Amino acid sequence: FLKVPEGLKLSWVKDGPKGHMFEAADYFRVDYSLEPGECTSFEGVLRASETGDFDYQAQKAASVAGWKQIHDRLELVPDTDNPVHQNLYLQLVTQCCQMLARYKGSDMVATRQGDLGRFIWPYEAAIVLTLLDQIGLREHTGEAYRYFCERWLVQEGEDKGRIQSGCAAWENFTGSVVWGISEHLKYSGDPAEMDYFLPKLQDMLDWIQRRRAQPSAGYPGIFPSGRGSDWEDVAQFWTFTDSYNAMAIRCMAEMLEQHGRSEAGAVREIYEDYFNRLIEIRDELYQGHENDETFLFPHELGLSIEDSQNYSYYTDGAPMLLETGVIEPGSRMHRQME
Questions:
Q1: What does pTM read for this prediction?
Q2: Pick from 328, 300, 330: nearest CA to 315
Q3: Helices in the chain by DSSP H: which ranges?
Q4: Per residue in 232-287, pLDDT tens?
Q5: In angstroms, how far is CA 217 from the centroid of its own chain?
Q6: b/e 235-250 (16+ beta carbons within 10 angstroms → b)
Q7: How far is Cα 140 from Cα 303, in angstroms, rounded to an integer?
Q8: pLDDT tops 70 at residue 314
Q9: Coil, strand or helix: which one is 267?
C-alpha cells in the first residue's frame, strides 16, 4: 500500500473462522467510516515479487493505456451519452477480459471464474465468450473453446461427445459449448476453425441426441433426470438443461445455414423436434393457469414450483425459458412470470 489516508484501517485476514474452502480468508480488510457524500481512496500495487522502486503514476497510466487499446477495438458500444452507462459497460467488458488466462506452456485460453477458486464452468464461460465475440473482442475466444474440446470432450465410449467436468457434471455443459462455438463461428467464419470445430460439434450433438433417447421415468423426448447445477439434487431440469440444449442446436443450425453447409437441414430438424417437445411440456404445465394473475413454471418436472427445492435455479429457471425462446416475449406467460 503506497498511500493510505488517515482514518482508514488495514488488516490482514489469514483464516476464516470455519476454514471453509469458499470462506473469505487470506485477504486485506479495509475498514473506514464515511459521512453522506464523503469519499476516500487508497493506492496500492499487487505484484508477484518485491515491489522495488517505481513510479506509481507512470505504471497506472501504462495500465490505463493498455486497457484503452482493448476498448478501442470494440465494434459495439451503447448508444448513450450517459457517462454512468458508458463506464458501466466498459467495466463489464474489462471484467470479462480479466476472466481469460493462458497458463505457461499452453496455447489455449482458460475462461475462469473471478473468485479465488478460479474454477471453470462451460455454461458461464460461454456467456462471457459469446459477449466478447458479439462486441468484436475475438482474439482469444476460439482458443478458449479449444480448451473445452481438448481438455473436457469425451473422445470414446458411450459418452463420446459429452463435455465432461471433473467437478460438478451439469447436464447443460455440452449444450453450452455447442451454443458458444456456434455463435463464435457465426462471427469468425475462419475455414481452419470450421474444419477443427465442426466434427466436434457433430459429436456433441450426437451425444445430446443419445441422451434424449435414453429411457426415462419422467417426460420422454428430453434429457432424463440428472444434475442441473452444482447442487446435488437430481431431476429433469428442463428450464436450465433442455431449453439451453435446444437454443444451442438452433444456433448451430443458424451457423451452418449462414455458411451454406449441407448439414444445416438435418440439424434444423433436430432443433425443431426438440423445441416442439418443450412447447408440448410447456403447454401441459400451463393448462389451467391461463387466467392466473401470476404463474411461474416449475424448474423440476414432476413438482410444482412450491414443492421445488430452494436452490438449483428454482426461481431463475422460468426466466431462462424466456431467454431460450420457449416463452415468447410480451406473451401472457411472460407477464404472469413478471
A1: 0.86
A2: 300
A3: 56-71, 83-98, 122-135, 141-151, 173-188, 191-213, 243-258, 264-286, 317-323, 332-337
A4: 788 899 998 999 999 999 999 999 999 999 999 999 999 999 999 999 999 999 99
A5: 30
A6: bbbbbbbbbbbbbbbb
A7: 42
A8: no
A9: helix
